[in-house]
Amino acid sequence: MSDDIFDPARYYRLSISPEDRERLPYYSALVDTLADSSLACQLLAEARPEQRNPMLVLAALHYHALRADHDLAPLYTDMAALTPDAFAHAVTAVLERRPSLVRGELHRSTQTNEPGRSAVLATILGELSGRGVSDVHLIDVGTSMGLNLYPDYYRVNEDDTEGVVLTMEYLGEHQTSSPLPRIHQRIGIDLNPLDPENADDVLWLKACLWPEQPERIARFDEVLDEMVLWPKATRLRGSAVDLIDEALELCGPEAMPVIFHSWAAAYFSPEDQVHWRERIMSHVRTRALWVYFENPWCVKSLEPPAATAASPRAGASQIVVCELGDDPAHWGWAHSHGRWISFSPPPARAR
Ligand SMILES: C[S@@+](CC[C@H](N)C(=O)[O-])C[C@H]1O[C@@H](n2cnc3c(N)ncnc32)[C@H](O)[C@@H]1O
């Protein structure tokens, strides 16, 4: 996930941000206990380098709990009956007795598809619309199940409304109230696009969610129910670097392509991040926008721009925007699941 020296115990401890630790006492205790387990550290080291993410181990354990594993299901189903420490030690004891539960899932990837990030994307698109971008094609790189291909179908901070409501707190002054641009093509690229009609894909994405946040699991179900009514998207299977040209070729001249990724480049190797940046910049003659929302610590090889203001909270993801040919610019910070945004786009340039 980053080019830092791999230290599994440290990765476990840092995998939950200080802000999220406050609302995730059970998962916080679990990552701390796993950090102290040499077996859990070894299992993380056995994952592919780009998947050495403690969330993969947490998702594997949660997956088996959801599949009614006789040891894990009771612990997860009745979590509140245990203290966080008791839960963490009990789950770690199961892992130490039955490492195959995790080892057997290490071929998978953490593909968490978080619709809350669409609230961040909608804010960016609203700002672009205020700057005259009225029509776009949306290319979502690392699309997983494609839940962020529909920023125009979610309702952000709207009560008493039909449809899926996303809640996002605006920190700071800048808000955008422009309507979203019209979205023409919706194109998702992923090494392994997940299918909302495949039961195991759905179960794996639920396992990637945090059991202490049942509201996210409920919202995921709600989105799947609604998504069948939304426009069909094009899904391209393969690596972003290999497929971006094909995706751009699908975009007609009637709208501006927006190449977007959230928490996807964080999973590219440093070399792939360099290739990705070079590939994007090779399209300098194409009129398109590159928009991303990633943790800058995990995407150093994309060379994210210096932030013009510090994040108001630790562990945030940086919002970066550029028109191809221009330098990428810092447009703010947001919680990695879109719980809050601190939006500070630079003034629009006269053209
Ligand atoms: C953590 S998920 C994020 C999903 C989604 N972007 C979101 O924000 O909800 C990362 C996704 O990126 C995909 N991915 C990782 N490396 C990729 C690559 N080189 N090309 C295309 N997709 C990739 C993974 O398969 C996974 O579905």
Any chance you could write out the topology, listing elements then pairs?
Layout: H1 8-14, H2 18-23, H3 25-35, H4 38-46, H5 54-66, H6 72-77, H7 84-97, H8 100-103, H9 117-130, E1 135-141, E2 155-156, E3 165-166, E4 169-171, E5 182-190, H10 199-208, H11 214-227, E6 234-237, H12 240-249, E7 256-262, H13 270-281, E8 289-294, E9 317-323, E10 329-334, E11 340-343
Parallel strand pairs: 1-5, 1-7, 2-3, 4-11, 5-6, 7-8
Antiparallel strand pairs: 8-9, 9-10, 10-11
Helix pairs in contact: 1-3, 3-7, 5-10
Bound molecules: S-adenosylmethionine.
3D structure, described in words:
The strands form 2 sheets. Strands 4-11-10-9-8-7-1-5-6 form a 9-stranded mixed sheet, sandwiched between helices. It has 351 residues and is an alpha/beta fold. It folds into 2 domains: 8-103, no CATH class; 117-343, Rossmann fold (3-Layer(aba) Sandwich), CATH 3.40.50. The chain contains 13 helices and 11 strands. S-adenosylmethionine binds at residues 109-114, 117, 142, 144, 148, 189-192, 239-240, 262-264, 267-268, 272.
